[in-house]
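Folding Task

Wanted — backbone structure
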Amino acid sequence: MRLRRLRPVGESIPLGDFPFLLTGDCDPEPKAFGSMQGQWFSAYRENTYWLSSGKAALAGALSVAKFSRKCKRPEVIVPAYACPDVVRAAESVGVRPVPVDFVPGLPWLDPERVLEAITAETIAVIYFRFLGLPANDRELRSAIGSTSDSPLLIEDSAHIFPTGSAIQSSADFVALSFGRGKPVSIGLGGALIDIRSRCDSKGIRPPPPKPARCGVQFRLKFLLSTIIRNWLIRPGSYAIAVGLLGVKTDRLSYTSPVRYEELPPCLGTVLANALAIYLRNGDEQEQFLRGLLKTSGNSSATWTDLDDQCRKRALNCGSAQNGKHRLWRYPLLFASVKERDRIYQALWKKGLGPSLMYEVPLTEMRQLSGRIVNTDSPIARDFAGRLLTLPVHNDVRDCDYFQILKCMEDFD
């Protein structure tokens, strides 16, 4: 058993003010806005909704779309390769997900396939900023239109927390997540930002969430679970948890319910601290790894730097290519499933924190059988089979990155 093993993703949740967590009753909004120094939310203060999860944020946006367009069987177009939480969010408000395939080699919805999938029942299109990468949102907006009859465009930004710039998006709504392992994480919570600039909003706003649970029992449970998780994700503890106990902190959840509630006010200080740490940390890890990859041989073109590809392609079709946005995980797309699996096994044996993400498209997840429209997604299936992500969190050392590079060069 290894004595040190890197987790694939996530930072510790700051608990410096935990005595206040047990006794305080602060409002999260002033703290969160203050921590962001007005860079991101200041223009949207009146249109930001603090909710219990990223799923709740998506559900709130879909509720607006559902009430804006009266349909008997409302549908939402979603990426064929995505987190199953997107399906959960749609189900919670009575909307049927319709998976649509990707642009070849990229985690982007194919605009032509989106147009083919739109029907009179389509109320919205959800695209995501996969791993913090730019998206083709301008291209999607052009495809679906901007009239009062157009579906709403919703950006799922669960994998990213923008810094240093105003919102760069063609969407009507942007959904954020503060859940476990997310870029800014407190273990739960999310935000929905209404950035509609069109005149067709009809005054419809997301439904008011239920009051948050902030009792002593909730606070103690939050404190205990956070202390345990912060311990588990340390490299030494993670090695024990994985090697002896078989715990996987990167495991996806398919069963957690969607609670459309407020973000607990007692967590305002924790969120503010998490935001401050995220801003202070910067992107040194990501930049160091990016530099190493550029200097590597890769003579046989075994892999492609997906970050580099997306940034180049987004110049003509995305809104976020100039933003100071950081990656949640560093993505590489390998030439074949076999090559990807070989590298993954080598990195995993050395405890270097690789990840395969979702592994299969939504239509092939057994837990979702019968709950989504069964569409064929060969490009998304191919993408899922060739994707590998590398860690860029603060516990990764320079020597770890050199080991990662050596493993990859050995297989080149």
